[in-house]
Amino acid sequence: MQYLRRERDQLERLLPGLDDALADVPLAELEQQGGPGIGLFRDHGGAALLVPNEHGGHGADLLTMVRVQRALGARSPSVAVATTMHHFSVASLAETARTSSGMEWLLLSAIAKDNLLLASAFAEGRTGQHILSPSIVARVDGGKVFLNGSKKPCSLARSMNLITASVSLPGPDGTSQLAVALVPADAPGVSVKPFWTSPVLAGAESDEVVLTDVEVPEELVVRTGVTSDGQLDHLQTVGFVWFELLMTASYLGVASALVERVLQVDKVDARLRADVVSALQAAMLAVERVASQEPDHDSLADALAVRYAAQDAIDQVAGRCVEALGGMAFIGSGDVAYLNSACRALAFHPPARARMSGALLDRLRGEPLRIP
Q: Which terminus of the chain is more solvent-facing, meaning fewer CB atoms within 10 Å of its CB: N or C?
């Protein structure tokens, strides 16, 4: 079947054998806690996808990566969601290395050489809290920085080698400043606690990561230029663009797995099969269009618009696919019910549509894009 052929060919070119390896494992096994999906991703060299060529990686760009994530999402939603967080962290690290004379290039080389996985402990919105308000705070004592707090949920919590964390750091004028810290997962004071109780996306290892007086060298703490009203600096903007597009492509892949099952049933009306294929393909083409642009405030606004439109397309397509497959398919296997639930979780990732509506309208009036 030609459906998803372009995406799977891209995945095969970069990580030979991974698609077949994932396809050989039942979906329920891939998606359970402790499932083999993340290990397969690591074993096939997936950690190095975004590491630049000069540092031993594949040097994949954003357009390539949205196709890879759609292919992964169609095989294992948990693997796609978890690895998006790794890619988001590596993309931010690579962007920092472009303009820094620090040790970022050494870390990138280590990620490629040793297949290191990065968990992302960046702030995520909670009810009543600003999305960029970190749950991890930094204490500066002389030339040392100590971190305290926790991130929950934190994907890759059980498989991570490094943690990238947004932290609240005391600024030179006494005010708090947003910074990014890089923490070894085996550093003294780092622990993992159970958190994720839902069976949906359980394979993403989204548990709680706790930091208790974790010492971090100052050279591994990068101050950002995020303002108090949510305006983003360049690094944050690049990170958000990558996050939104990779996550959207991942969930389009999950919904594509439902479409793939519908396409295999000849008795389903041809008009319906063509409609669900077209709806997801249109959403994916929009993702690819933004992925081909240089990340900036304009492309971030576009990425958010594409992401929210994709949520609507996924909801509509998933409902039609489940109805078309019928009760026997729903009863006979847990896969249909699982994919139907998993593909809708895109709505839970930050920033929520309701919170961004006013900011996106302000952007249309010519104001800077803010993350409220």
A: N
- State pLDDT tens for residues 266-307: 899 999 999 999 999 999 999 999 999 998 889 999 999 999
- Tell me what the mean pLDDT of segment 161-170 comes to: 86
Question: How high is the pLDDT of residue 129?
Answer: 46
Pairing type for strands 162-170 and 136-141 reads: parallel
Q: Is residue 30 pLDDT above 70, yes or no?
A: yes
Q: DSSP letter at 129?
A: B
**Is residue 363 over pLDDT 60?**
yes
Q: Is residue 33 part of a domain?
A: yes
Containing structural domain, residue 40: 5-117
Q: How far apart are CA 280 and CA 283, in angstroms?
A: 5
Q: Are residues 212 and 249 in the same domain?
A: no
Copy the structure tokens of residue 136: 């991890």
Residue with token string 């096939």: 44
CB-count burial class (<10 Å; 0-12, 13-18, 19+) for 35? buried
Q: What is the pLDDT of residue 72?
A: 98
Write down the pLDDT at residue 138: 86
Domains in the chain, number: 3
Distance in angstroms (rounded) separating the CA atoms of residues 347 and 318: 14
Regarding whether 344 and 257 lie in a shared domain, the answer is: yes
Q: Buried (b) or exposed (e) across 13-23, using 16+ Cβ within 10 A?
A: ebbeebbebbe
User: Which whole-number Å values give the CA distances from 93 to 58, 111, 118, 299, in the listed order?
Assistant: 15, 11, 10, 20
